[in-house]
Amino acid sequence: MPPVILEWAASKSWFVYNMPDALWMYAFVSCLLLIWWQQRRIGMFYGLGALSAACMSELLQSYGWQAGTYDLLDIYYYVIATVAV
Questions:
Q1: What are the pLDDT digits (tens) for 50-67?
Q2: Does residue 8 fall inside a structural domain?
Q3: CB 28 within 8 A of CB 18
Q4: Are 36 and 43 in contact (CB under 8 A)?
Q5: What is the pLDDT of residue 82?
């Protein structure tokens, strides 16, 4: 990659730290909905379950009960990615 793009990406912390989580959530919920495409309600149920599990993971990190770094923006981007599907 050109150095200009790397410098721009490094200056945007959300791009580096939160965007991978949002893309992961978007891809996972999309796959769930593709698997359950004939029964949309079941797919949405599993999608909301995935969102709940991701948010619970962040909350457990905030209390120190799970390894990782808590970030409220991760929860925000999880919700945005789920709604975008």
A1: 999 999 999 999 998 988
A2: no
A3: no
A4: yes
A5: 92
Residues 6+ apart with CB under 8 A from 67: 61
Q: Would 79 be classed as within a structural domain?
A: yes
Provide the number of structural domains found in the chain: 1
Amino acid at the residue 85: V
Torsion-angle region of 12 (φ positive above 0: left; ψ -120 to 50: alpha; else: beta): beta
> What pLDDT digit, counting tens, does each position of 12-47 carry?
777 778 888 899 999 999 998 898 888 878 888 888
d(CA 76, CA 25): 11
Q: How many other CB atoms are there within 10 angstroms of residue 30's CB atom?
A: 16
Range of the domain at 69: 13-84
The model carries a pTM of 0.79
- The answer to whether position 26 is within a domain reads yes
Judge contact between 34 and 40, C-beta under 8 A: no
The DSSP annotation for 62-76 comes to HHTSSSS---HHHHH
